Amino acid sequence: MAGNGFGTIFRFTTWGESHGPAIGCVVEGVPPRLPLSEADIQHWLDKRKPGASRFTTQRKESDRVQILSGVFEGKTTGAPVSLLIANEDARSKDYDTIKDQFRPGHADYTYWAKYGIRDYRGGGRASARETASRVAAGAIARKILGDGVSIRGALVQIGPHAIDRTRWDWRAVDANPFFCPDAQTAKKWEGFLDEVRKAGSSAGAVIEVQASGVPAGLGEPIYDKLDADLAKAMMSINAVKGVEIGAGMGAAALSGEQNADKMRMKGGKVTFLSNHAGGILGGISTGQDVVVRFAVKPTSSILTPLKSVDRFGKEIEVSTKGRHDPCVGIRAVPVGEAMTAVVLADHLLRHRAQCG
């Protein structure tokens, strides 16, 4: 199976299945002598792990990370950093009834069509369980970026209910189970998702990630644009169906005068009067906040019966039992942060290699 790695200089490769003994990743390109401990990684994994509230899957995983290589006496050696996260609460029997069935919206059919075999236990390699490895790699990327770069994500929409941006407060993000920057909307989401779950259905979401302190000059023109790599990073996350940078799709409704981020000098430095570009021009960072949003589709595993077929060509109806997120977009917030971090860390190292 190709396509399990991401990045150029800072590169990570993930491995493992949802119901296998463990998952993990190997991270290459980590500079030597970088202070790194399991606690540095665990902090971010705890934000993503399941069972944190009634609005996420009740699968109980501690997601304790173990560093297997690449660190000696508390510092990276320059060798590949290998990370392992054990699977502790897999209930494979929940999937026995659908082992020959193709769940609508899932990768069941496409994996079977491509490989002629699939791991039906929790989706196997296609499971969102894989994203824990991304978060672990993202924690190392944050160490490379340093304290001067801040990467923060927030849930800005669940189903049809979007936040009121005039009430945006980063302090609210850690005070509710949704990573929501609008406390009033977070309360509305509670009732909405309770109804969705009771109906045996699910809801989609939109996540926004903002990276502050990114220096100007990161990104490669043409095919390796910073925004192109961010778009690929977000589209590689399970269930993501759309990505936009800055004003994104909304830029199409703006005039040229409105969309242009006008410039002035302040304290001897170039400053921008707006940020419709999302901190990236010509594929290269401007020094402004890098802003990326991505849309996550509704969780495909639902109790409501759906028309489908099985691998024998029989028309059936599928209802998926088990422990599933009514809105998988909630736990995608720390995943989006991590993928932003790995892209920025990779381009920082690439920039240093070429430009010093």
Description of the molecule:
- This protein has 8 helices and 18 strands.
- The protein has helices at residues 38-48, 108-115, 131-145, 170-173, 183-198, 226-235, 256-259, 332-355; strands spanning 5-6, 11-16, 22-28, 65-69, 71-72, 75-76, 81-86, 150-158, 161-162, 205-212, 240-245, 263-266, 269-272, 280-281, 284-285, 290-296, 306-309, 315-318.
- The longest helix is centred in the C-terminal third of the chain and has 24 residues, at 332-355.
- The chain starts with a strand and ends with a helix.
Topology:
Elements: E1 5-6, E2 11-16, E3 22-28, H1 38-48, E4 65-69, E5 71-72, E6 75-76, E7 81-86, H2 108-115, H3 131-145, E8 150-158, E9 161-162, H4 170-173, H5 183-198, E10 205-212, H6 226-235, E11 240-245, H7 256-259, E12 263-266, E13 269-272, E14 280-281, E15 284-285, E16 290-296, E17 306-309, E18 315-318, H8 332-355
Antiparallel strand pairs: 1-2, 2-3, 3-7, 4-7, 5-6, 8-9, 8-10, 10-16, 11-16, 12-13, 14-15, 17-18
Unreliable residue stretches:
none
The helicity comes to: 25-40%
The SS-based structural class is alpha+beta
Beta-strand content bin: 15-25%
What's a concise summary of this model?
By secondary structure, this protein is an alpha+beta fold. It has helices at residues 38-48, 108-115, 131-145, 170-173, 183-198, 226-235, 256-259, 332-355, and strands spanning 5-6, 11-16, 22-28, 65-69, 71-72, 75-76, 81-86, 150-158, 161-162, 205-212, 240-245, 263-266, 269-272, 280-281, 284-285, 290-296, 306-309, 315-318.
